[in-house]
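Query form — protein NAD(P)-dependent dehydrogenase (Short-subunit alcohol dehydrogenase family)

QUESTION: What is the three-dimensional structure of this chain?
INPUT:
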Amino acid sequence: MAKEKVAMITAGGSGMGAAAARRLAADGYRVAILSSSGKGEALASELGGVGVTGSNQSSDDLKRLVDLAVSSWGRIDVLVNSAGHGPRAPIVEVSDDDWHRGLDTYLMNVIRSVRLVTPVMQDQRAGAIINISTAWAFEPSEMFPTSAVFRAGLAAYTKIYADTYAKDNIRINNILPGWIDSLPATEARRESVPMKRYGTSEEIAATVAFLASEGAGYITGQNIRVDGGLTRSV
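ANSWER: The structure tokens for NAD(P)-dependent dehydrogenase (Short-subunit alcohol dehydrogenase family) are given below.
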């Protein structure tokens, strides 16, 4: 009998994280979901998976989910790192505490979960890690200072990790969404996109599903823009 495929999704209670969990479950994955609101645990139950109510800023909460997934199914094939929203303010008005909160929200959330999942994937000699980042990681916007700064760091982390663990058949990639329908819509933002529309959470989830699939088996260390052409010139 073929082994069941298992996907772990952090910050998976709503938005792009929840859409990714639904898509992977539809593709036949068992899902383990973490969220701070309790919605992830409820969604996991709906999808026939397991869930933990906790924070991706807590190594203990993440370890609970890793342990639960492994005890339930014996493996973790895919890790999807989503995130909430970090502090925003004019660049010189971001306080020290808010910079640290941004670090926890947009970079350490990945570092913590990857540290826990890597030994599992090494034992399997296979795994795919997919981080939901931002279109503004390389062309930063003053609207999202902490996100842009720390997700630029995430791009560097991803490349170093890819170099280190490709030999173990573990892949890691970042998705860079632009304006997505999980965010408040404005006409100015819509008009700034060459496709003249917001993307959907389901389109991000479809990209997650592709990067998790065997068809993406030769893709690692990449930052993949899914933004309707918003950053097409860079």
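ADDITIONAL NOTE: The first helix runs from residue 15 to 26.
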